[in-house]
Amino acid sequence: MKKTKITTPPWCPFCGQKVGRASDAIERSLSEFMVGRCGCGAVYTCDATGHNVGSAMVEAMVFACDNNWDLAWDLMPEDDYLTGRVEDYDEVTHQVVNTRNLDGRPVRGVLYFVRLHKDIAEVSRRVKAKKEQLAAQASQREVPVVPDVEPDVEPGHKPLRANKKIVRELVDKLDVDGAVRLCLDDKKSLRLMQRLLYDADEARRWRLAAFMGQVCARVATRDPGQVSQLLHRLYEACSDSAATPWGMLEAIGEIVSARTDIFGAFTRHLLSYMGDESTQPQVLRALARIAGQRSDLIRQTPFYNLFHFLQHPEPQMRGLTALLLGRIKATETTTQLLELVTDEAEFVIWEAGIPATVTVGQVAREALALIREGETK
């Protein structure tokens, strides 16, 4: 009697080839699943629990479209792409378990596959190539700084343990070196640091946000996963209607701007908080901070929805919008910016945790200069 095989290697439903274990995408994003590619061109995501297949489907579509959300939402099933799935997948052993139970563990994982039709895949590649070209051009102009990889610990190093007191002392001293080492030794360090953002003092919030940006930039050279998890928590805190998101949006802007090469995909979600008047200034500041490093990340979002804020009654809203549009060289707003050059209303800009009082007109003039500079290149 032939014995039924309990486990088999996972395969691609389109070509039948065995597929490798899914892994983290190089560029982190807000909705994160492990992803992989098959040699036939299909891509797949892993939902280890089987309870989040809908989100895994969306992630697979966006991954197949090279992170182009607009293209992904425009595609039609069957006409533009095919889907498939492999069920009863065990992420731990990278096997399909026919009995749905392995060593007493229930196995309910799903590998969700998407394969674009050839013509759509070619469109996606061309769009990606164009975006990479624009990003490279922006990088050459803006010269983003990528920190060196943090050195490994010396043999016999005893890992440090984080607590509220130690984290508070490092923050008060602005000891970036000490904070980076603590974060790499104990992953709860960033969580403790996040709690300090709940501070009624705006100056302390901005100083801490800038500090976290510096720390996370260096931690990400060795462990981008824990920084990505921090960004997830910050966004969750911003979405909590029962709490004030003090410092959260500011921290997101500082962290993403410090490592746009890894966390740039988190940028587009900031616009979700422009509907609430209490968070609008923080969103504009965060976007402007990111634009100072990678203006193309803002241009990949529906930034044109911000144009009307140039006529906002509050000076800081007019000024921050002008600051952002200047940094992305938005030629579309030249006429509106010209109307602001004589606006002498003052507001405060926070850059790297340091405040500066400026006028709306001053920022508008600087924005126009940046736009003209972009037109001559």
Automatic annotation (TrEMBL):
Query: Matching SUPFAM superfamilies, A to Z?
Result: ARM repeat
Q: Does the keyword Ribonucleoprotein apply?
A: no
Q: Name one GO molecular function term.
A: lyase activity
Question: Is this entry keyworded Lyase?
Answer: yes
Query: Which terms are listed as keywords in the entry?
Result: Lyase
**The protein, known as:** PBS lyase
Which organism is the protein's source? Candidatus Desulfatifera sulfidica
At the highest ranks, the source species' classification is: Bacteria, Pseudomonadati, Thermodesulfobacteriota, Desulfobulbia, Desulfobulbales
